[in-house]
Amino acid sequence: MNNLKIKKNIIILITYLFISDIYYSSILLAEDREVTTMTVTPSGYDEERLRNYFLPKSESGKLFEGKKATNIELSDIPEISTNNARQLFSRTPGLLVSEVSNESFLSVSYRGVGDPHETFNLNVLSDEIPLNADPYGYPAVYFAPPFDYVDSVQFTRGGAALIHGPQPGGALNFITRDPSSEPFSFRTKQVTGSKGLYNTYNEMSGTKDGIEYLAAYHRRQSDGFRLNNSDYQLDYGTFKLGGQLTQKTHIMFNQDLYQGTFGEPGGLSKARATEGSGQNVANYYDDRWQTSLNFDTLSVSRYNSSLHLDHRFSASTKLISKTWAGYLDRTSRRQTLGTAPGFGGIANGSTNVIQSQEFTTFGNLGRVVHDWNLLQDKDSTFVAGYQLFGAISPFTQETGKTPNAVRGDLSRKIDRDTFTTAIFAENRFSFGDFSITPGVRFENINQSIDETFNASSMANLRHTSKTNNVPLFGLGLSYDLTNNVQAYGNISQSFKPVTFQDTLPLGPADQISSDIEEGSATNYEVGLKGNPVSAMMFDVSAFYINYSNQFGRVGPEIRNTGEARYYGIDISSDLSISKIVDQTLSTNLENSIGNLSLYGNASILKAEFTEGPLDNKTPQYAPDYMIRTGLMYSPYEGTKVALLGSTLASHYADDGNTSNFYIPSYRVWDLTGDISLIKDRLSLTSGINNLFDENYYARIRSNGIDPALPRNFYVGFNAFF
Description:
The chain is mainly beta. It has a single domain, classed as Maltoporin, Chain A. The protein has a 23-stranded antiparallel beta sheet that branches. It has a five-stranded mixed beta sheet with strand order 3-8-9-6-7, with no helix packed on it. Residues 4-50 have low confidence and may be disordered.
């Protein structure tokens, strides 16, 4: 396939999509010049009482009825002053955070399904715009919006997230802040902490004469806890501009800019060097803060533009359209090992390897939402839409002449392209207390790889092109047992295309199976959720996942590792102790001392390979249990303190269950708080992460153990104008 022709066609398509949205907006503007503020209340049962945790039946053209779907409100806990995913997901069972010590990327998995590294097995979005570099060909997540800029996170489990994509792990959708309804507002946050931590977030926002605007800048930096080369610094800026074009039409343009540089201090080993071997090994027990890689760095740049259009044709019919185009550059510089071992070795090579991956992406998502009556006074909702996505992602590798070279001699060049089209439809049929929501998604996925240069005289240049046509089906059921308690169930199919790194080896020792095939999974879930009394919320479900042709590594070979199954129970609850005491003893505790609440959640998991070369092994990052619990106290409005705890069972960081990749069980607690000094104007924020200084690690890669952070603190303030 002619790459120049592909690129030309993609540029034409991007231009067309942007112009079409603007043109359509101008037509709608001509229809109705009256500019007013339109408020749309999402449908759903008892939203006011359940909104802080349960997503409504439908919202913004997405159906959540009959699905295991959770809303993570950041306002429910004290502010998170770094992108600490452990704290963000503290109330969400099943999400495992593989803690990255230098904050270079989000690393999360769900119910043991796939490697959490760079969140490869979850569909991660920001306002429905993909954050995965290429969700189909290279689904690494190198950027997540700063949590100061996030209002909430919507998490839809497994294949039930068909409206977002085919991935088995489900979808995490970050919902970012909207412009303020005031003519002008300004917020600044300044935080400092251990090891040179500095975090600032500054936002200007407002609505004036029907025009909405928001501009924000964020910087975060730290020296890191390792002896050397664990520092990082990142800058993020965003800009939103839009408003009501007409009484029925809303439009919003968004521009994101991000730049981050991260030192990579390397992994550690639990073994010591053999006497006289000449091997130099960084041992975890000798010094968990030593550095094994002194020159390795990762740099990420991301620029993304998007246009969001909402138009209401009538009280029952709405159009939602999102168009985006972006560029991401990911560059790593890594010293060669020399005579050092690969796992925990202190590199002593005289050269380095420089890898650059670029992703020029575009997409357009459109869907129509129509509310209709199946029976008299019974509401049903139909959603249908499409998504186009394309990515051009060249890969280059150079060999530098020094351990810290920034440029070198070209050793490899690969052109990679992805183009997908998807159509989907769901309908919620409502029969009073009972509803049924069937859904379908059809994916056409085209991936091509063209290796144009390889300096190795032994290499055969690889050229592949493949198209997959994938139909996926889902079915959700729900039944309202009472006004506040609902039973639900879901069966959904999912699909995992072969990624570029599964097709063409990038590591010097990597081998690729000649018959690697796409993966597929079916997700089953039944549960019960609700808040039977105003002081209590709960959600309990049983799940079963059957995953065929899962990808993994057996020795140096990347291949299908066979069939695996995952089953267990997820439990979550939240109890207001103050309200319970008041209701039981007829006291006035909540008004006199404030609200004290207790939350707890657990994921009990059994995961195993049932056939293939890893038969009877346990999939990586699949602990038998994850338990999270904590206390939250709010003595008065604007002030809250939280004690957040996480306990994980021992597990393995590889599918082969080798001793090097064993992660012992650990328990870690965080204490965070916000204190209002001047209502709505000034507050203090502070926290102690890893309060009891647990010595643990939650992540092991091929180069060794990545130690988790020790006890550390931060303190700062928020000012609002």
